[in-house]
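Researcher: I'd like a structural prediction for the single chain below. Treat it as a standalone chain; there are no partners to consider.
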Amino acid sequence: MSTLSRTDTPPADDVHLIVARDEEVVIEHHPEDWLAFVLFWCLAFIVFLQFFTRYILNDSLSWTEEIARYGLMWLAFIGGAVVTRKKSHIAVELLSNLMAPGPLRATLLAVVDVVTVGFLGLLAYFSVTIIGRMHNQTMTVVELPMSIVYAGVGLGCFLMLARQIQVVWRNARERWRRAPDVTEQISVD
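Model: Treating it as a single chain, here is the predicted structure.
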């Protein structure tokens, strides 16, 4: 015996409790993304080559360890530019998250941005001076100047500085206003 009356209709088969909609995903490709991608896979190949020659062939290539070490330095600083663009560097945001939205909070965020630009500017300046000083020294195994290694560090520092200036410009246009909830501050990249 059915419990449905004539006015009750059975539920449709296409009724769902949870409706999920796909958001449009925009994938951006920036120069530092491609450079980090290429560096990562070159580094992976070199480390695999080092493993293969050392443990399989039992005759290690001497240059792989040195190039892998310097490639990791390049990757760290180029990756720093990617992280700067995405605004996902490690930061202590407790004070700004506890403050109510207003001019005091905006001033604090502006000061943090200006200090960050100043620090990255100094880092870029010192990386250029180190590149000049290290030109006369050579790598241990590969007979190339150490200035090549530090050029990658300098490139990463200048890319971070450029991306931080863009972040400050964007924040200044928004008058350093942030979403009141921390979960709303996370941008989808």
